[in-house]
Structures are given as C-alpha cells and as structure tokens.
Amino acid sequence: MRDNNRAPMSRRGLLGAGITVAAAGGLAGCGILTGEDGGSGGTGEGKSKGGASAESGRPAPADSPSTRPARPIGDGSTADTGPQPNQPPPPVKLLPGQAPPQFVVFSWDGAGDVGDGQFPRFLKIAEEYDAKMTFFLSGIYLLPESKKNLYRPPNNRVGASDIGYLTDAHIKDTLKLLRQAWLDGHEIGTHFNGHFCGDGSRSVARWTPADWENEISQAMDFVTKWRTHTGWTDIAPLPFDYRKELVGGRTPCLLGQDKLLPTAKKLGWRYDASSPGGRQVWPVKRKGLWDLPLQSLPFPGRGFEVLSMDYNFMVNQSGFSSNGVTAKRPGWRKQATGAYLKGFERAYHGNRAPLFIGNHFEQWNGGIYMDAVEGAIKGMAGRKDVRLVSFRQFCDWLDVQDPAVLAKLRTLDVGRKPEGGWNTFLKAA
Q: How many of the other CB atoms lie within 10 Å of CB of 420?
C-alpha cells in the first residue's frame, strides 16, 4: 500500500470502534492506491487486470427501454429511454402502529469491470435475490488512458489519478454492465474521479465547493461524452439521462463531505453517502440532503466495531496487505460475513434502522470479501419486512413518510427495540 500523504497508524486506532474514530475511519472508501500517476497497470479500486472481455449477460425484457425507440442525448453516449424499469411500487406512508421495513443498501465504489467477473456476478446475485443496489461510478473509468490529459483534477496535475485508468476492453465491458445494471433497476451514482486521499495538499479533504463542482462536472462529461472520447460507434448508449439520474455519491475515502454538500445541494442531489463512522440509527438531513453514512458494525471475536466496508475488514485482518496469510482466509471470510449479519440482526430485531454496506469489486485476500457480501445477501433476502434497495429507492421511501414518524424513529438508539412493540410506539406518532 502506498500513500505518500498518510502517516502510519495502528489498525485499531485507524479503523476501530464507533464514532470516536470517525476521522480516521474516512479511509474506508479507499482502494489500494497507486500513487499520483495511476495508470492501467495500477492496483486501484478498478485496477486493470488480465482476462477476457465480459459480455453484459441476459437479454432485456420485451417491454424494457432497450427495446423501445431511444432519444439520443448529446453525442449519443446516453439516451432517454423513458422511466427506469424494474422499480418497486411507489412508496407509501407507514400506517399508524406499523413496523418500518428493514432496509439494506449494498453499494459499490468505483463500479468498473476489470475482467474478473465480479460485476456480472453481483448483477446475477441481485436478480436471484430480488435486490437493488447502488453503483458509484468513477468517471475516469469511462475515459481512455490515452485521453487522460482531458482530466484536470483540482490541486493535482493534469491526468493524475490515484486509481488506475481502465484498458479500452474493460471500458467497453463497463459500459455494457452499467447499461444492464440500470435496466435491471439499480442506481448509478458517482464516486467522482481520481480518488485523492490522505491529508496533504492533493487530497479531496482540501477541496472547496467550487473544486467539487469542477470534479462533478468532469465526471459528468466522462459519462455523457464517452463516445466522443473513444470514437466507438459499435456500443449501445447508456439508456438514461445521467444529468437526471445522478442524485448522490460517495467521496473518496469518505473525505470532504462538508465542502461537497453545498455543491451537491446546488446540483439537486438528494443524498450523500460520504459520512464516516455512522451508528445504526435512523438518518437525518444535513444541509438539505439525506446523510446516509457507512456504519459501525459488531466485529465477531474482536472487542471493537468495524466500519461496514470490505476495505476496513481487510485492514483489521491483514493490515494494509491485500494478500494476507492464506490459511487465515476462511476464518476472515466467516468473520466478515458475521459482521454484516450481526449488524443486520441488531437492527432487524431492534430499531429497524437501515443498514448501509459499502464494497469494491476487488479480490483482496483471495476474494473472501466478495464471498462475504454474497453470504450476507443470502442471509438477509426473503425475510419478512426486509427490502434490499438502492440509496435512491430508500430516499423515495423517506421522502413520503410523516416527519413526526421519522423523528420518533430517531429516538431509538442502536439495537433498541421499541417499548411495548411497534404498534404502541408508532400508534400516536
């Protein structure tokens, strides 16, 4: 792991229990960094790996937007195909005394395909278990490395990135899978672009609201002008208007939220998922946006809690090495799966606070964290009142609820079951 801006810290102090380590916990959104230059040989969140190109999977249903006339937008990189298919019924208010659903949001930082089968794997799992997810796309994953000089990151030199650019073949696969993801009903958010972490002058932690606006504008251009930047004419457009689709994101390493929020509000975003070290309680709005943080979860066999992201599990198990002791991996896999499920059970049988889980399409420690996410989905899906949704869909539900009901839900502490049951607790709300 290389990050010239980060001072050495102990694993416990870096990513340990609870809100008291929120600042250090900001490292949660971080991949294995490559240094300033990045490049296709890097080892970032969406590092370019070998392997054959992946196709996008099953055909679209007969009534899907992909089978209807599309209205090209701009250079044809995106298209207006009408309302997004495969969405849940419109949300309704809770009835008096009704228990809230147990919402779980699985989200993916970077959301680039690198030929290892993880992106299509989880699209298939999501279909099998009726789950919707949020994919936070890094804009430069649609920008060819040969055109990296088009990226002008704030406080960094032209073309710099702390995650690698994808190969052309992997950009094509990413486009196909993003198309499938949206048609399947998933959300496409943003993870911005160059992923600059740490606390030095290059870091997103130093960016101003204007810097964030610049970065978002560039991410938008890389998504909506990929056809111009690549010259490709043999790939279908993304079937959505990204300027309307984009309503939230997660910052690199969970840094810079305070300065991002004014810009996000100005752009009409509905939520931000960048706050570190959140507790499993019902969310509030900050500066007009829903604040939907990663959360501290029980860490089986350890005396502290861990942030709800695969990277944090790795650091607490094998340090900053993504290739830890092979013999320990089965135990680590069980521990990671257990953390997700313990957090779920604590909320499900307690205050029903939503559970937010973050991931990367990475093979850290032999891919055990991918297996842990799959195990968690299998352990949660299909249970009474459980809804596996995207952040956008969760915001849809929040926005139609009675504010008095949400306020009362916020009075329930982590894992606390309402006294007298839900019927009594919310009857007079």
A: 9
